[in-house]
Amino acid sequence: MDAATSFWATPVGWTLATLGGILLVVVGILISLAFLLLADRKIWAAVQLRKGPNVVGPFGLLQSFADFFKFVLKEIVIPAGSDKVVFILAPLISFVLAFIAWAVIPFAPGWVVSDLNVGILYILAISSLGVYGIIMGGWASNSKYPFLGSLRSAAQMVSYEVSMGLIIINVILLAGTMNLTEIVTQQQGWIWNWNAFGGGLETLPTIIVMLPMTIVFFISALAETNRPPFDLPEAESELVAGYQVEYSSTPYLLFMIGEYANIVFMCAMITLLFCGGWNPGFPTDFLNSVPAFVANLFYLAVFAVKVVFWFFMIALVKAFVPRYRYDQLMRLGWKIFLPASLVAVVFVAAWRVFAVGG
Amino acid sequence: MLQGLAFYLLATVAVVSALLVVTARNPVHSVLWLILTFFSAAGLFVLLSAEFLAMLLVVVYVGAVAVLFLFVVMMLDVDFVKLREGYARYLPLAGIVAGVLLAEMIMVSISVVQGGAAKDALAPVPAGPDVTNIETIGRVLYTDYVYFFQAAGVVLLIAMIGAIVLTLRHRPGVHRQDLAAQANRERAKAVEIKSVATGQGVTPEELL
Predict the structure, then answer these.
(1) Min Cα–Cα distance to chain B from A43, Å
(2) What's the rounded mean pLDDT across residues B25-31?
(3) Could you give the 3-state DSSP secondary structure of residue A111?
(4) Smallest Cα distance from A230 to chain B, Å
(5) Contact present, A243 and A156 (Cβ < 8 Å)
(6) Does B59 contact A118 at a Cβ distance shorter than 8 Å?
(7) How far is A151 from chain B (nearest CA, A)?
(8) Would the pLDDT of A294 be above 80?
(9) Taking 50 as the threshold, does the pLDDT of residue A1 lie above it?
(10) Burial track B81-109 (b if 16+ CB lie within 10 A, e otherwise)
């Protein structure tokens, strides 16, 4: 072992390496978010035969950065009757939670900040905390519209978390592990090894529940991130902008970035859990001869393409589908998705035990 | 060293925020401090390398139970002055209860440290390094104690059904969406074509 590798094994070196990794992930996500946000607006515009943002930079590519500076340079307005500490804390919580969930996401083999054994549970824990930023923001504003908006939003997020948890249990049953890296590794090889298609030939019949569950997970992800058609918390016609009415300037920006980071995170989740993560859907034996770093760059590109594909789908849904009514949203979550995912869990578990054997 | 530092940090945060839960003037702040207490307790579990329990604590208590608390407390129309009235009166009683609990906890932890408490009973066998604690808990819960686990599940189910039975009432006169009725509605039942002569118009009676 030479001097350079032994330094990274010491506590100081390990801390520095981890901090560097975290910084890389956060900066990478923030920059991708700037362009994904623009893509979201461009796709929306294209569906409606508009041009979308096209003034700042070539094709409007720098629009998000212009928006960023505009938000940051504005005055932070804090309502006089608000609970000031909680009011400022709420967007910070939303922002931080949206980013710490990325700690367990494997971008390529070995490229993960923290390879937790309970990675999926960690993600569930973090996403169940996300509700607090919204409730606190709505309550601290001390105003009726944000409060109603936050209550709606919290009820919606809690409802869909249940069915999402059950769908994730399907994946855990198929994979037999809660470690995200292992889940992705098990999906390598041909495309039928992806969990969306039953996760391998041995469990191929589970495709009849796993494929629908992938779509249910996608719809639940829309509801979980308050995206259209489930954007009831910010239904402009009734609630102005939901829990963020009183927010301006940087705190609003934090909410906004947190929201988009969550959306992209959900895309990454669908990719990792159902669509093979970094695996391109065919055996990658040709990468055995190249250095690991180059192979990892290829895997990272595959992962990014899949994430962008799901983001594209989410952006399309925003343009196509009209907003749900609140009781319809609750009905969909509790009366359709929850029983359906429960049946799927029973089916997959039974298949694992009786057909595959253990 | 790092572990010790983390322990003292988390323990201090847990104790201080637990104190603030009872002393905070605003009940919503109390719940927020409670969440911080749960969170540091989860951190302590991680230090014990019981990461599964830590995550469950966050998912169940912080993600579900505390959200319900927060909902209820925010909806209540609380009179802060009235809430503080009995504080001094109930303080001695609360102090006694807390003191008894503290004494019990200290006694339990002393006896566990000395190895006396779990000696006779089925002492937990530390799992090997290659067995995750999800697997260990799963084995204990679903293999060794499967009947107790099922019984606990039935008790919870009965409690849930009981709560629904007690609170469910069908109020008359509330408009609800009947999807089956909507889907089965046919054109013939809903629309009637009337031919109206040009320039004549119709009276309401004719339409009925």
Answers:
(1) 33
(2) 85
(3) strand
(4) 19
(5) no
(6) no
(7) 8
(8) yes
(9) no
(10) eeeeeeeeeeeeeeeeeeeeeeeeeeeee
Tell which residue, A322, A320, A314, A324, has the closest CA to residue A37: A314
Residues in chain A whose Cβ is within 8 Å of chain B: 11, 83, 86, 116-118, 121-122, 124-125, 128-129, 131-132, 135-136, 139, 147, 151, 154, 158, 161, 178, 327-328, 331
Q: Are residues A199 and A206 in contact, defined by beta-carbon separation less than 8 angstroms?
A: yes
Q: What is the mean pLDDT of residues A43-49?
A: 91
Residues of A within 8 A of B26 (CB-CB) are 83
Cis peptide before B27 (omega within 30 of 0): no
Cβ(B78)–Cβ(B30) below 8 Å: no
**Structure-block tokens of residue A239:** 């609630």
Task: Specify the DSSP element, H or E, that contains B55.
Answer: helix B51-56
**Chain B interface, best mutation among A132, A177, A243, by max B CB count within 10 A:** A132
d(CA A300, CA A108): 5
pLDDT of residue A80: 86
The distance of A8 to chain B (nearest Cα, Å) reads 17
Write out the two tokens for B69.
């608390």
Q: How many CB atoms lie within 10 A of CB B167?
A: 7
Residue linked to tokens 């979201």? A40
Chain A environment of B63 (Cβ under 8 Å): 124-125, 128-129, 131, 161
Name every residue whose Cβ is closer than 8 Å to that of residue A291 and which is 6 or more positions away in sequence: none
Q: Which two tokens stand for residue B163?
A: 């709560």
A125: nearest CA partner in chain B: B59
**Using CA of residue A333, residue A338, residue A344, residue A348, what is the dihedral sign?**
positive
**B3: chain A residues, CB-CB within 8 Å:** none
Burial class (CB in 10 A: 0-12, 13-18, 19+), A217: buried
Distance CA B204, CA B208 (A): 7
Assess contact for A137 and A146: CB atoms under 8 A: yes
First and final C-alpha spacing in chain A: 42
- Find the helix packing angle between B66-75 and B27-47, rounded to 10°: 170
Amino acid at B40: S
- Residue A32: CB atoms within 10 Å: 18
The interface predicted TM-score (ipTM) is 0.81
B67-76 confidence digits (pLDDT tens) = 888 888 887 7
pLDDT at B1: 73
Q: Per residue in B156-188, pLDDT tens?
A: 999 999 999 998 888 888 887 788 888 888 888
Tell which of A124, A129, A153 to mutate to test the B interface (max B CBs under 10 Å). A129
Pairwise CA distance, residues A121 & B3, whole Å: 23
